[in-house]
């Protein structure tokens, strides 16, 4: 099976992530929030590092239940700073709490975090159709637009590169290479769900 270049050299967990999660359209708010926080924590690190720590992240961040993370206090921040299983970066930890509160505000306004995110693409995944990894950008006009709006809403640690990785991972953008076996599968799965 041909995979996207970034997944070819990864371990079994990376290949499984590529094959079953990455690029699949996601509409569950807790999962979208989880992926956003994991992508924020990836900044400056490899995705393999975050993937290896994902279970520890789930445990440390209350399975990314948005209301629970929004209620984290200074004592919890200290606890997380002492947790060797996750990325111990105070700015990233504080951003998770701030961003959880921002997601709650979006849910009040839009009904769900998913509704808000998917409105930027009129509810339909962007299919890039790149043939080679070198064509895949680090940012796009879409990630710039969403980043600007998130920052306006008070989100922290959300640059356009982080947001573009988030859009790719959650299937808002399908950036599987056209040579990858998942490219067509995801397009077909998305069409099947709509019909």
Automatic annotation (TrEMBL):
InterPro entries (alphabetical): Adenine_glyco, DNA-3mA_glycosylase, DNA_glycosylase
MF terms (GO), sorted A to Z: DNA-3-methyladenine glycosylase activity; metal ion binding
This protein's UniProt keywords: Metal-binding, Zinc
Gene Ontology biological-process annotations: base-excision repair
Keyword check for Glycosyltransferase: no
SUPFAM superfamilies listed in its UniProt record: DNA-glycosylase
Gene3D superfamilies: Hypothetical protein, domain 2 (1.10.340.30)
Residues that bind Zn(2+): 4, 18, 176, 180
PANTHER family linked to this entry: DNA-3-METHYLADENINE GLYCOSYLASE 1, DNA-3-METHYLADENINE GLYCOSYLASE I
Name under which the protein is recorded: 3-methyladenine DNA glycosylase
């Amino acid at each position: 099976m041909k995979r996207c270049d970034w997944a070819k050299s990864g371990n079994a967990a990376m290949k499984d992530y590529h094959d079953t999660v990455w690029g699949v359209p996601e509409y569950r708010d807790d999962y979208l929030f989880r992926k956003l926080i994991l992508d924020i924590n990836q900044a400056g690190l490899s995705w393999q590092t975050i993937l290896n720590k994902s279970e520890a992240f789930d445990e440390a961040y209350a399975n990314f239940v948005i209301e629970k993370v929004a209620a984290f206090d200074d004592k919890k921040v200290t606890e997380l700073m002492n947790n060797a299983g996750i990325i111990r970066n105070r700015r990233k930890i504080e951003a998770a709490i701030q961003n959880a509160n921002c997601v709650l505000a979006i849910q009040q306004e839009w009904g769900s975090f998913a509704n808000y995110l998917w409105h930027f693409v009129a509810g339909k995944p962007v299919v890039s159709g790149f043939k080679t990894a070198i064509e895949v950008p680090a940012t796009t006009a879409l990630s710039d637009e969403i980043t600007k709006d998130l920052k306006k809403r008070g989100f922290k640690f959300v640059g356009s590169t982080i947001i573009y990785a988030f859009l790719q991972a959650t299937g808002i953008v399908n950036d599987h290479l056209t040579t990858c076996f998942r490219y067509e599968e995801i397009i077909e799965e998305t069409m099947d769900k709509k019909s």
